[in-house]
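Example record

One chain of 127 residues, shown exactly as stored in the release files.
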Amino acid sequence: MSSARTYMRPMAGWWRKDPYFVRYMIREGSAVFLSLYAFMLLAGIICLARGEAAYNAWRAVLAHPLSIALHAIVLAFVAYHAWTWFKVMPKTTPDLPVPQKLIVAGGLTASAVLSLALFGFAWWATR
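Predicted structure tokens for this chain:
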């Protein structure tokens, strides 16, 4: 007796055929880097709690060229991740009478203003 064979869709690489899914997978992959960066910051907080020597050792690790390159990569992923989420924002409120481009621009502007304010406060606090 022959067994009936069911169709199984090939799973490897199907998302590479559609640019929408490629962008989606890059955004989801960037979340992995963001999580790793959050753990790196958590390690800094733990080192800070352990004392000045541990914190200075953690800062020395951050000054390594490989760490600086990792930070540049993470910054690029953060920028892409944020941009894609700002583009999704208008789709979550479809009944709003405000144009979608205005919602995206408002989100980006608010993010930039808050980032500059935080940077300015950090600069002022270290003076």
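Notes: The chain has a mean pLDDT of 87.
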